[in-house]
Amino acid sequence: MWACFSPLTKQNMIRGGVMYSLERPVQGQSSCPKDRLGRKRRTVVSSLTEDEELTEILKSYSSNKVTTTKYSFLSFIPKNLFEQLHRFANIYFIFLAALNFVPVVNAFQPEISIIPILLVLAVTAVKDLWEDYRKHKSDKFINGLVCEIYSRKRQMYVDQRWQDVHVGDFVRLSCNEIIPADMLLLYSSDPHGVCYIETANLDGETNLKQRQVVRDLPRQGSELTPENFHSRIECENPNNDLSRFRGFMEYPSKARVGLHNNNLLLRSCTIRNTETVIGIVVYAGHETKAMKNNNGPRYKRSKLERRLNVDVLWSVVLLVIMCLTAAIGHGLWLRNLKDTSFLIPDTTSPALSGFYLFWTMIIVLQVLIPISLYVSIEIVKLCQIFFIQNDVDFYNEYMDSRIQCRALNITEDLGQIQYVFSDKTGTLTENKMVFRRCTIAGVEYPHEENARRLEVYKEDEAMGCSHTLKSRASAKSLSCKSLSCNRSSVSLHTLTGHSEGEESPSPTLPQHSAFSSPMEKDIVPDPFLVQKLNCLSSPLFLLRDASMELTYIVDFFMALAICNTVVVSSPNQPRHVSRTPLKSLEDIKMLFQRFGLPRFSTLSPPHTTESPRSFTRRLFSRGKAASFTPSPSPTPTKLGTEPDGEPNLEASILSIKPGLDGNSNGGEGPPSEPGADELIYEAESPDEAALVHAARAYRCTLQGRSLERLLVELPGMGSLAVRLLHILPFDSTRKRMSVVVRHPLTNQVVVYTKGADSVIMDLAESPKGAEQSDGRQGHIREQTQKHLDNYAREGLRTLCIAKKVQTSTEYDIWLKRHAFAETSIENREELLLESAQRLETNLTLLGATGIVDRLQEEVPETIEALQRAGVKVWVLTGDKQETAINIACACKLLRTTDQLLTANCDSKEACKALLLELRTEVERGEAAEGTSGFTLVVDGHTLDFALQEDLKGDFLELSRRCRAVVCCRSTPLQKSHVVQLVRDQLRVMTLAIGDGANDVSMIQVADVGIGISGQEGMQAVMSSDFAISRFKHLRKLLLVHGHWCYTRLANMILYFFYKNVMYVNLLFWYQFFCGFSGSVMTNSWVLIFFNLLFTSAPPLLYGILDKDVSADTLIKLPELYKSGQNSKAYLPSTFWLTMLDALYQSLVCFFIPYFAYAGSDADMLSFGSPINASALLIILLHQVIESRTLTWLHVLVLVGSALFYFSFTLVFSVVCVTCSPPTNPLGVDKLQMSQPLFYGVCALTTVLALLPRFLFHALRNSISPSDTLKAALMDQLNPDNYCRRMQHWNQTQAQSKARGLIINVEDLDIKIPDFILPKELKECRAATGSVLS
């Protein structure tokens, strides 16, 4: 009974931002997680049960109270301290503080030594406490929400807080209420047991999802009565898989029914379009799937941080060397002493004294390891994130969204990206699918008027009148602010059921749905196709040879309308409308039979007994039927049979109205009121919505959907109910979806399939023995393939449409196997996949569609800017090769001057040979002059071979030499493997950007993952490090903020090392004059506070606000980004040069005061006073030299730091008598500051210490200025001078052959956009050339 639920064959999958491991378990082991009591499955019964054992089981499950905080009142201090001790630096400084309490090795007052580490720990603790308090407030609000729970005592539903919900409780929810816990749906007010939910709070998708009541649940009357529920539920233990739920419900009769994901209502989703639902809680609180997927911010180690750790280790090495030198020197000094009368007699040997001194020097020189650096880095990164998130250029007004920074510690990596891997659909394109054209039965319909309509929309959006985005914004705002259930679900019963009263519907607000903008909905039909459909209104068409083609056309649009999972809603339709008898439908069916309308598989004309005019009048005189219900006749004619009992023929032609643009009533009766039949389609993908809207444009309208039926309006036929037998949903393995329906006229089982052309074309095989059909199908396949190739070259997304008619025997055989797969618990997914593949064979190809998905705005400019910045852009897409190449050309990834290399191989050997051949061709091209570049296009099949161990080296070497790479027909797994291969083998910084769940794997593998909050939900966003709304935002995110974040943080880190090493060396030089005794020439308070307080604020401001180049210039000159790619701001050589400079400055800072006070009566502290003051001035002015930006805030902080130091030391020397035993600093600094020699020494020391650095910068900037400096200087020019300088820049850079900013000749025709430049510069457009983008 407690056996594992599913030893499912597993694969690595990514859902909702979390990597799930679904690998096959080792034999003999369980693949199911165990609960807290060690059970492998969960048992759930009603909380009203009297069984004590079951009650105890329910109590063992988690309550619904959610706590996301890490600390409690009592655990905060110990737990936070424990977490901070995970940092090696904190352990190191705590060790030193403890070491200073040992009398033998202590350097100064033990109490003072703990101040730095206590301050660092306190600052970090306060930050953690503030973050935790914010989580506590959020938890309190959510736990306090109210829902209706069934009470045993009161025998009614009562209001309870969410935190009081437990597993086994019955929860009743109404429309627009949020689901408090994961519940099994037991009752819905919908007569068909359907419930609609919106999962926007879970995955960001606003389209409605359909859930259904547990199958075969005994009817409980008008509403489920909890006391009568005695079933037992067995389900899998809590997990984070949002798309899977396995279990069964056992009724009191011991009958069992399988439970699936469609029966589960997930926490945080919202009830829509359903008046009342009741469910029993199976997972609560932290065991719900939503909480299992709530992982919080992502944490990664940046490249700069890894480099920092190496330099910290070098600092440790340097510290050990200095301490060893002092220890050895102290031992030798003691051994060579002749007269020790001034020393206290001690029996300690010189060697042991040297050992003790080693630890004393560790304490004295501890500042060499920058204790405050880590805290400063965290503060700087938080401020950088604040600036990024509040950049108005990242705000999307229509979607009301801005950039999200989900990873808090890799902002500087944005400035070092070398490879960008991008998805195509929804990332480079709008992912707003619009029906563009189609081919049916081998005949292409170009829809030229529809093309012109799309051009009008494009022009309107270019002028700032974006229809699509406004509609999308409306959808978001209305869905978030919905207060009543004002959208009724148009399921079958809502259109055909009797109204129990004549109440008028309440007025409702117009609502918009995803993928339903005017551009997507208002499709202009092709006149030639309309003309063919209008021919159906006359029986003369039966005598034409085109009748077979027309059957394909009707079937094609039927498939577009019903082969989907679209939920139909209506904004202003009442819940009930009056019935219309089925008599009209029966009469139409009788007419089909009487006049012998042809089958789909025959071309023979019918034998009619009436004239064509009489036939037309009788067929269309009944007008439009709104709906239908079962006939009240006591002897109804069985669907699909003749009156004499003979079976009807295959699914046949449904009559079309006399004119698609004519009166729907056929000329009789008043026309329908405007908006009376307005429908809203809630599609899971834009492709589905586009095809449903296309079918509706030809009056083949999907009007409603229920669990078992579809309501479809056909031209001239009114509304017909199509019995829905099965839905075989789309998956990435099959690359198609199918619906199995029973035709309303013939009662035959028909399979409609749509999917990728690469799959459908292979499955579209003619049935054996159908020679005539085989010839026609061969012609259709040939013509359709030509049209598909043309569509791909135009950049259209293609889908093929096919059908299959099943005989009763075939269907019964398949149904038995499929029923077993559906009710299976173990290996259910694999069995369903096999079942679908058995059905989807020998399909009859109907046609194909071409759907346009336009590029987002500024995509070509963004890609061009990235390429000029030295970033290599790869596009990884699942589209056809022709489509991918077309998009690559449109977005300027592939330039007209590039040489295109294609790799399409059928075997590993051919792939190896081709890679070597292409590599040789690239090498020849690189050797030849005038070659622009190469772009490699690889299909998915070839990519499989190229990613194998023995070929990936050749593939990588070839792709590395190419300017761009396009991988088409690639799977999500291939995408992640490509990113990982480039990242690991080339050791480069990678960025992956995508918008859908299929991009999650590569987003997580890349060094930086960018999610686009587009049309495909929030899976990519939840898995990303940063989330943006448009691809164009990537340009500023990398070129501006990435450049700033990297240079600021790198310079701040170097500055921290510099100031610490410079000050520590002063203490080290003093050891040569005090017998390496560990003494210092300053009081311990100044020693501790010097780096911790006096010089800590300026580097923070340096890391937050320093700006070497303005944002406009960085956008206009993408080449400046290369400095970050090459880590020019923080190289190993830069680090060691900084150390040498600090060494020189420390020598100057120590020995000038030493020689100035030589021979005087100055004591130790008097000698140290000018050294400390000079060191402070040198360190502060050093930052002034290095800073690119000086504002009043910088001046305030720098001057404030200096004043703080002098004020502190002056007050300290006046009031402190015994603050620093055994020394007495009383009056020392006061006396020094009253003498002119003090200021003269400080001034001379500061000038001589900084003079080499100042001269170095002056000479370098004059003789060989960096590109960044030249760009910064241009920022300071007026517009006229700026224009002339930019023109000169272009001329010199275009001719330069040296490394740096090299402008390709083919880029010289780039225009300067108006929106970037000031008005004064627009006149210089022709002169400035190509650098500005």
Automatic annotation (TrEMBL):
GO terms for cellular component: endoplasmic reticulum membrane; plasma membrane. It is an enzyme of class 7 (translocase). Mg(2+) binds at residues 423, 425, 995, 999. Its EC number is 7.6.2.1. ATP binds at residues 423-425, 688, 730, 754, 797, 877-879, 969, 975, 998-999. It catalyses: ATP + H2O + phospholipidSide 1 = ADP + phosphate + phospholipidSide 2; a beta-D-glucosyl-(1<->1')-N-acylsphing-4-enine(out) + ATP + H2O = a beta-D-glucosyl-(1<->1')-N-acylsphing-4-enine(in) + ADP + phosphate + H(+). It is found in: Endomembrane system; Endoplasmic reticulum membrane; Membrane. Residues 58-114 form the P-type ATPase N-terminal domain. The keyword Metal-binding applies. GO terms for molecular function: ATP binding; ATP hydrolysis activity; ATPase-coupled intramembrane lipid transporter activity; magnesium ion binding. This is Phospholipid-transporting ATPase. It comes from Oncorhynchus kisutch (Coho salmon).
